[in-house]
């Protein structure tokens, strides 16, 4: 089964600047065409091709025309299908290791412009103050309008320590502004953690990479060692996590779920795109890899949990949040997630290039598609603090905002879960949080994992403490030993 998963190569990702989108290679066997070739359209294509070759103002290489035609076919399908030249395909393979060159931005396209989904933590983009929702309209004075997403990405990549100037349009500002960034080799630390209070741990996953599962186990064991006792509550922070490898998302979910619990299933036209992925080593390990989850302490399966999400939580993040929500394993808190519910398969081509093709939709254990909708939190808590990269002062972009996005096949289905159900909404205003009403918190200091003024985190901790109080109250009374009883 594990080999089957590797062969199919399902991926669940955002689009990254300088970061390879998470992948798993696959080769899909040739299938017989079920429809006759559209001869009129093919004739029109060859006529256009011939006219360009003979009449265009400048000579155009065949290779360029064909590459652009392929790219047009794919980019017109949905925001996540794309053609990759040899360099882009090579970069794609490097990115799953958690190290890449570039600016550190997750992007989409809107009206022909590059739209920032979220800057990645500790990168040139985040340090320069780029925000979710920013529109990039020029790259070094070259207009973005008319470029494909791949062309724009290629321009933003480059050698480390070289500058690039972005012209940015931001909601609420009267005119565009320029920001110069210095390209860098970016090493993304996939898992960060902190014992925020005695008995209460915080784990943040910034991106689902090849070793995220192992890093999660290390983080939990480090928290256990520091606390010197099992935790009484755990916050899993998936805010602004753009996604990554599907098998890593299954592994993270499996860390907290009972063995063989359903994590996610996929459905597409091809038979090999229809899969049920469970909390089993077959679906989160690769090759002969040892089962890293065996190193987890038993209490991890039952420790009270809150999962934080926002509009920057996409794809693999939503798989984890949806699985833990449907399996009634955690309370989901925050704001509506991004809504990327499609699966991409990476198909290498014979000339060193490749395509990223949307081959399936994924569904949570209860059958929900989050495509163009996202995960609805059990408790909606507005963001009152800048947490690494936040929506504040910007505006959250979601899958539904992207051109040509796939529709949601079951958008009318709603599901409720444990403890509190929507529309419970918590804001700094209705909690009397004076700091957050007058000042939307502060940015993380260098080396800081999470801010003590993080409004959503503080609400999560309050809930976990309340759960522990209820557990104590509901616990059966222990018999009191007296002299008469003896």
Automatic annotation (TrEMBL):
Superkingdom, taxonomy of origin: Bacteria
Tagged with keyword Hydrolase: yes
Keywords: Hydrolase, Protease, Serine protease
Molecular function terms from GO: endopeptidase activity; serine-type peptidase activity
GO biological process: proteolysis; signal transduction
Domain PDZ: 89-157
Keyword Cell inner membrane: no
Record's protein name: Peptidase S41
Natural source organism: Sulfuriferula nivalis
Lineage: Bacteria, Pseudomonadati, Pseudomonadota, Betaproteobacteria, Nitrosomonadales
Gene: ctpA
């Amino acid at each position: 089964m594990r080999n089957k998963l590797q062969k199919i190569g399902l991926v669940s990702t955002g689009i990254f600047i300088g970061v390879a989108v998470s992948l798993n290679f696959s080769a899909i066997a040739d299938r017989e065409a079920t429809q006759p070739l559209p001869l009129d359209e093919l004739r029109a294509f060859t006529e256009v091709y011939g006219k360009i070759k003979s009449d265009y103002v400048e000579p155009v290489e065949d290779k360029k025309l064909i590459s652009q035609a392929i790219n047009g076919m794919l980019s017109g399908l949905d925001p996540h299908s794309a053609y990759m030249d040899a360099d882009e395909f090579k970069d794609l393979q490097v990115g799953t290791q958690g190290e890449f060159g570039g600016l550190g931005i997750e992007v989409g396209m809107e009206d022909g412009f590059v739209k920032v989904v979220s800057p990645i933590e500790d990168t040139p983009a985040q340090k320069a103050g780029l925000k979710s929702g920013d529109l990039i309209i020029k790259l070094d004075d070259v207009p973005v309008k008319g470029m494909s997403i791949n062309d724009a990405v290629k321009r933003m990549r480059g050698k480390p320590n070289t500058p690039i100037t972005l012209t940015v349009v931001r909601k609420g500002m009267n005119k565009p502004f320029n920001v110069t960034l210095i390209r860098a080799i970016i090493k993304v630390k996939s898992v960060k953690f902190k014992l925020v209070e005695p008995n209460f741990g915080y784990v943040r996953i910034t991106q689902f990479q090849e070793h995220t599962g192992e890093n999660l186990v290390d983080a939990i064991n480090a928290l256990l060692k520091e606390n010197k006792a099992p935790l009484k509550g755990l916050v899993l922070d998936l805010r602004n996590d753009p996604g990554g490898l599907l098998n890593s998302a299954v592994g993270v979910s499996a860390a907290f779920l009972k063995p063989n619990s359903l994590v996610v299933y996929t459905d597409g036209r091809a038979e090999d795109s229809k899969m049920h992925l469970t909390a089993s080593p077959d679906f989160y390990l690769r090759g002969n890899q040892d089962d890293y989850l065996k190193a987890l302490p038993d209490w991890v399966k039952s420790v009270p949990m809150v999962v934080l999400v926002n509009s920057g939580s996409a794809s693999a993040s939503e798989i984890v949040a949806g699985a833990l929500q449907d399996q009634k394993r955690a309370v989901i808190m925050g704001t509506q997630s991004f809504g990327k519910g499609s699966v991409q398969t990476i198909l290498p081509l014979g000339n060193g290039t490749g395509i990223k093709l949307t081959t399936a939709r994924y569904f949570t254990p209860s059958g929900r598609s989050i495509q163009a909708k996202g995960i609805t939190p059990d408790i909606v808590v507005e963001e009152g603090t800048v947490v690494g990269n936040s929506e504040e002062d910007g505006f959250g972009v979601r899958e539904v905002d992207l051109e040509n996005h796939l529709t949601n096949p079951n958008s009318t289905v709603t599901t409720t879960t444990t403890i509190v159900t929507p529309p419970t909404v918590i804001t700094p205003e209705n909690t009397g949080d004076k700091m957050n009403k007058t000042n939307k918190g502060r940015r993380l200091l260098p080396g800081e994992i999470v801010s003590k003024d993080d409004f959503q985190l503080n609400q999560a901790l309050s809930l976990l403490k309340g759960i522990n109080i209820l557990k104590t109250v509901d616990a059966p009374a222990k018999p009191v030993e007296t002299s008469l009883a003896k």
